[in-house]
Design brief:
GO molecular function: DNA binding
Keywords: DNA-binding
InterPro entries: SpoVT-AbrB_dom, SpoVT-AbrB_sf
Number of helices: 3
Strand order of the largest sheet: 1-2
Protein name: AbrB/MazE/SpoVT family DNA-binding domain-containing protein
Largest sheet: 2 strands, antiparallel
Order of helices and strands: HEEHH
Distance between the termini: 48 Å
Radius of gyration: 19 Å
Shape: elongated
């Protein structure tokens, strides 16, 4: 963990180690007790493809399973 300070124009400079690890783009999210910086991938679609590369079901199959599970949980 490290500290960062805003400059007189409101800019925040992140430490080099953080930029090298997570990149240069972030979503700033206002949470109850502060803020969070969420790294944004250079190509978010590539990140999603990588994340779900091992999923063998189609989107329709996943959607149907999710719908069935929600109906079961709701007590049909």
């Amino acid at each position: 963990m490290s500290d960062a300070t805003l400059d007189d124009r409101g800019r925040l400079t992140l430490p080099k180690e953080i930029r090298e690890r997570y990149g240069d783009r972030y979503h700033v999210v206002d949470v109850r007790d502060g803020i969070r910086l969420i790294p944004v991938a250079d190509d978010p679609l590539d990140e999603l493809r990588d994340e779900f590369a091992d999923v063998e079901k189609t989107a329709e199959e996943l959607r149907d399973e999710t719908r069935e599970a929600a109906l079961d949980k709701a007590g049909r």
